[in-house]
Write a structure and sequence with these properties.
- This protein has 194 residues and is mainly alpha-helical.
- It has one domain.
- It has 11 helices and no strands.
- It is globular, with a radius of gyration of 17 Å.
Length: 194
């Protein structure tokens, strides 16, 4: 029988895939990090509810998963948030940036840009570069690879989940111990353990 820990192995694998892929593979990066995020969220949801099937039922909806985790546990990733208003907006448009009433949302978006990209575009990231369905493409954005933002966020997830736990495989630690990763990838992933 599966429990919430079943999400951790693939979450870690997607994070390794993000870290090891060349930085210019933008759609691969966004797809990989988005899936790692989705799986860590599903682990958190299933741990609190005991219901793996319901966690899977969220599909790729990062915002709904995030909100459900926050609703279930007010101590879920304190200091982190996903704002519906920011998710619905086009924060890089000139009108949004210059409007004083959106200043706090704009600053929040700029600090968490890749999180919002993953939350909003995960299901379509694999189609980056193709004509967008119904005019809803990824648009233009900047990203850093590998971004220390994800190490910090996933360290918080792993701490919240108690991962790695004794007598359980930690995929990332195994990859680091195998010495098969390129040095820069290994250095990036080692930061999870600091």
């Amino acid at each position: 029988m599966y429990d919430w820990r079943a999400f951790l192995w693939p979450a870690d694998e997607w994070f390794v895939a993000y870290a090891i892929s060349p930085g210019d593979l933008v759609s691969v990066k966004l797809f990989s990090i988005g899936h790692a995020l989705e799986l860590y969220l599903k682990a958190a949801y299933a741990k609190r509810t005991g219901n793996v099937k319901d966690a899977i039922g969220f599909g790729h909806n990062i915002f709904k998963l995030w909100k459900a985790c926050k609703d279930l546990d007010p101590n879920f990733l304190p200091g982190r948030e996903l704002r519906q208003a920011v998710l619905n907006a086009m924060p890089l448009s000139g009108k949004y940036m210059s409007d004083p009433k959106h200043k706090a949302d704009f600053e929040h978006y700029m600090k968490n840009q890749e999180l919002y990209l993953a939350a909003k575009h995960l299901k379509d990231a694999k189609y980056a570069g193709l004509p967008p369905p119904k005019g809803k493409g990824l648009g233009t954005f900047a990203y850093i690879h590998p971004n220390p933002y994800w190490v910090d966020l996933f360290r918080e997830f792993r701490t919240y989940l108690g991962h790695p736990s004794p007598n359980r495989i930690d995929v990332i630690e195994n990859q680091l111990e195998s010495k098969a990763l390129p040095p820069e990838t290994a250095e990036y992933l080692r930061a999870l353990y600091k």
